[in-house]
Amino acid sequence: MNAKTAFLFLAVLLFVRPSVYSQTTLTAAANAARDGDSLVMRHLDVASPGSAGLGVVWNLSGADPGRHCILQYAVDSCSQTALGQYTSWRTVIRGDTLFLTGFENRHTLMELDGPLPLLRYPFAYGDSIRGSFHGVGKWCDRTFMRVWGDGVTRADAAGTLILPSGDTLRHVLRTHTLRRTWQASVDSVRTWESLRHAASRDIVCVKEAASPVISEEYAWYAPGWRYPVVRLESTGDAQGTASLATLFPPVSQAGLPYDMENAPLRPLDGFPSPEKGHDPPGGAMTSRSAGYDPASGALTVTFTLSRAAAVSLLVSDVSGVAWRSAERTYGGSGTYTIALSCSGLPRGHYALRVTCGPDVFTEKFNSR
Q: What are phi and psi of 6, to 5 degrees?
């Protein structure tokens, strides 16, 4: 390599690489959760994560944001908790690594005594982190469980994200988390203490574990915004897969107080405008009923709306894993029906959650 070629090579490193990488690096200062932060969450009708690699364009301009809810963070010196949609996820930062330590919802309490690493700070395109996990849990205060598995997170893509509002975010970094989980009920213990003691000695008698549940999460981060702008989650096994996409509007993140690490990085021409389709305050659903047909596996929900609104359905099992979901937007008042096929679900207990703005109700059923 002659001197001229070497000079050109160094110029590329100095002037091209920073424009791609320097604005797409996650750090604890700019991206770790903070105590008291509240985010607006909007459901999206997005099923595919799109391509990986550099220079990708993710176009969500055709997506229609649905109902909204709030994700609340609580952080202390030992842990941080994200509470949203009736599930509390617990994480902790140890050194430069963010670990998942457990979760809790109405049905399940899970504690990971062997936590799963999720991110390492800093985290840029091409980086990855992997590890295994183990935990014990309890379902409905009567069935003890043991879970174990492995996971890997990769920063697998960077590019441009076009939001449903039409606003464009550049230098976006996407992370992809893939997790395999085995779960088994425990027959030989009746208390938390005996469960932890037996698990630590690896002598717990469990029923034979089935094939693993595969969970994937894609998260899109943009410079200037502390939390992901879009997140796509999917969970499934050999019986089927359910997906849920969520938008965290940048306009709501811009309202977070004292976020001085991110504010200077936002576009000079202002942050994106509020997303379309926001439901007005107050409930729109005046009546509802649900029925499940074990023979056909059909789950039918009938409801009456007093005005235009978005309605979403979510079917989850006792461990909080989502198996079926649907969302519809209605232009006016009336009585409507949504039919959701639950055929192929493994035998067991499930919960249906119906949400319409601030209105939420649940119904339990058994798949046979």
A: -60, -40
Q: Round to whole Å and give the CA distance between 220 and 49.
A: 10
Q: Residue with structure tokens 């519809």?
A: 328
| DSSP class of 249 | -
Residue 15 pLDDT more than 50?
Answer: no
User: From CA 2, how far away is CA 125, in angstroms rounded?
Assistant: 31
- Phi, psi dihedrals of residue 352, rounded to the nearest 5°: -100, 130
- Could you give the CA distance from residue 229 to residue 250 in angstroms, rounded to a whole number? 6
Give the model's confidence band at 97: pLDDT under 50 very low, under 70 low, under 90 confident, else very high: very high
Q: Collect all residues with Cβ–Cβ distance below 8 Å to 134 and sequence separation of at least 6.
A: 112, 113, 114, 146, 147, 148, 199
How confident is residue 11, by pLDDT bands cut at 50, 70 and 90?
Answer: very low
d(CA 307, CA 101): 42
Residue 165: other Cβ atoms inside 10 A: 18
Residue 188 DSSP symbol:
S
Tokens of 286: 């005046």
**114 and 151 in contact (C-beta within 8 Å)?**
no
| Distance between CA atoms of residues 6 and 28, nearest Å | 36
Task: Determine the length of the chain.
Answer: 368
Provide the H-helix boundaries in the chain: 3-15, 17-21, 28-31, 192-201, 250-253
Phi, psi dihedrals of residue 134, rounded to the nearest 5°: -150, 145
Q: In the predicted model, what is the mean pLDDT of residues 241-258?
A: 82
The DSSP secondary structure of 111-174, one letter per residue, reads EEEEEEEEEESSB-TT-EEEEEEEEEEEETTTEEEEEEEEEEEEEEEEEEEE-TTS-EEEEEEE
pTM, rounded to two decimals = 0.65
Give me Rg for the CA atoms of the chain: 22
Q: Which two tokens stand for residue 290?
A: 């649900």
d(CA 59, CA 44): 13
